[in-house]
Automatic annotation (TrEMBL):
Residues 319-372 are annotated as: Disordered. Coiled coil: none annotated. This is Serine/threonine protein kinase with PASTA sensor(S). It comes from the Bacteria. Residues 325-339, 357-366 have a biased composition (Polar residues).
Length: 519
């Protein structure tokens, strides 16, 4: 880098680019007027399609600017310049708690000191009616003197919003989520207490009690963990720390401490007055569903995992393999006229019960081959489709036929978009190149687009998937599921419900085992 330093917004001298993409940038900068290093986060509002998002960022920046506390990273200023919106934060000479845990062997006293500071930060934020929603070691910063600051309020929301998160929207970092976050329930400050409990558990034991091999298993563990097992793993810790962790890591919010202040009292921390901003008014429109209201979710590039479940996209599949074989009679061509211009069946979230498939389709295979047609001057080729179980055939957005086909379709030579639509399966979509005087054969099993659940419940349970009753365990066969996030609920009148979300990739079989516990 040469020449004059880059100056942004006439007051930030850029020292280092930390993260940058087309939407946002994160910089280490020198604040010219304050003569100090800061973290600068910049959003290009011209790249954001929803203007209301930018307005919410601005309102949330004002909300976070209220949090003036020694254990919370301070928002210094924010503003707009042309199409850009920026926020500057104080810069901490230190490391994340994650790095501290990996690199340092902390004493009992040092761990206790960090614990106290974390709950002081939460006590102040909650007193100002702000819920963090992403408490984790990566968002906690520690300097060389072991002073702690809580940062990255990118997912924070004001308690006045009081909305229920959509069951298909999970916001936060999986292994530190509360059960109510995973299930999409209404969040309160007690969700932060649970997440902080996971952090403190890791601080004292060296491991996260819920972290598993993948996101799906981790979320399942949070929803179905044994509270007694948590307590058994705390042997050797001071009694007050054991009591705090046992209380914080309760599945039901009502069973946890009422506030971070109660935790501080348990740690024998002297009461400190908390200054509450008097203008704590609702800062966002109150909508029951769909709005997650991050402060700067597009600005905070460093957020490790934000799982947002969206409408499932059409699965991507490999292009068919092609092989030239034999000549066919030209009479095999189909001159069927084009019919409807829109699909009659939309992609369905309905999940069917397992059913037996024949040997030719059990492997969920797809194959293709090309055959020669007698030469002609029309610039056309043929397409023959074998689809299990059946599907409406759309070529370039127009419905042509429904399988099984009686004869090949005749198409102009060139590229065409193929869609196969069945109400109980994801939409199959592919781009095919039809060649002059050649016949392409496709063999497709829609089973290959699904995922499969192998659910076992002790003692037994009624299973609901995406709100639809699937039956009572034990199941003789796997349950077929559209790939993506799946809402799973298990009930038994004598035990507490299991209500969780799992993620399935196309073609995956996920085995889940649940042990039900008394209410």
């Amino acid at each position: 880098m040469s020449g004059n330093p880059e100056i942004m917004f006439e007051k930030f001298e850029i020292l280092e680019v930390l993260k940058k993409d087309e939407h946002a940038g994160v910089y280490l900068a020198n604040h010219i007027y304050l003569s100090k290093k800061i973290i600068l986060k910049v959003l290009n509002t011209a790249k954001i399609s929803d203007p209301s998002l930018v307005e919410r960022f601005k309102r949330e920046a004002k909300l976070l600017a209220r949090l003036d506390h020694p254990n919370i990273i301070k928002v210094l200023d924010f503003g707009t310049s042309k199409e850009f919106f920026y926020i500057s934060f104080e810069y901490i000479e230190g490391k994340s708690l994650r790095n501290v845990l990996q690199e340092s062997d902390l004493s009992k006293e040092e761990k206790r000191r960090l614990t106290v500071q974390l709950f002081k930060a939460l006590n102040f934020a909650h007193a100002n009616r702000i819920i963090h929603r992403d408490i984790k070691p990566e968002n906690i910063f520690v300097d060389k003197n072991l002073n702690l600051k809580l940062g990255d309020f990118g997912l924070a929301l004001s308690a006045e919003d009081n909305f229920v998160t959509s069951p298909y929207s999970i916001v936060g970092t999986p292994s530190y989520m509360s059960p109510e976050q995973v299930s999409g329930s209404q969040l309160t400050h007690k969700s932060d207490l649970f997440s902080a409990g996971v952090v403190i558990y890791e601080l004292y034991t060296g491991k996260n009690p819920f972290l598993k091999d993948n996101v799906t298993l981790t979320l399942n563990e949070i929803m179905s963990f044994n509270e007694d097992a948590i307590k058994e793993n705390l042997e050797g810790l001071d009694e007050d720390i054991k009591d705090i962790l046992t209380n914080l890591l309760k599945k039901k919010p009502a069973a946890r401490f009422e506030s971070a202040k109660e935790v501080l009292n348990k740690l024998n921390v002297k009461d400190e007055p908390v200054e509450i901003e008097k203008q704590a008014k609702p800062v966002l429109s109150k909508r029951r569903y769909g709005i997650i209201a991050p402060l700067i979710a597009l600005l905070i590039i460093i957020i490790a995992v934000t799982i947002i479940v969206k409408e499932e996209a059409t699965p991507e599949l490999n292009q068919p393999e092609k092989e030239i074989t034999s000549n066919l009679d030209a009479s095999a061509k189909d001159n069927t006229p084009v019919k409807n211009t829109e699909p009659e069946h939309n992609q369905s979230n309905e999940i069917r019960e397992p059913e037996k498939t024949n040997n030719n389709t059990e492997t969920a295979s797809k194959s293709a081959e090309e055959q020669l047609l007698p030469a002609n001057e029309t610039g056309e080729g043929g397409l023959f489709i074998e689809c299990y179980p059946w599907a409406d055939v759309y070529i370039d957005g127009e419905k042509i036929e429904t399988t099984p086909l009686k004869k090949p379709l005749t198409l102009p030579a060139g590229e065409h978009t193929l869609k196969l639509v069945h109400p109980d399966y994801p939409i199959y979509s592919d781009i095919l190149r039809i060649e002059n005087n050649k016949l392409m054969n496709l063999k497709i099993s829609l089973e290959s687009l699904l995922g499969f659940l192998d659910i076992k419940v002790n003692p037994w349970g009624n299973v609901y998937i995406n709100g639809n009753y699937k039956g009572q365990t034990p199941f003789k066969e796997y349950i077929k599921v559209n790939p993506g996030f799946v809402r799973l609920k298990i009930t038994n009148p004598n035990f507490a419900d299991v209500d969780t979300t799992v993620y399935l990739k196309q073609g995956d079989t996920l085995g889940l085992k649940f042990i039900l516990y008394k209410k």
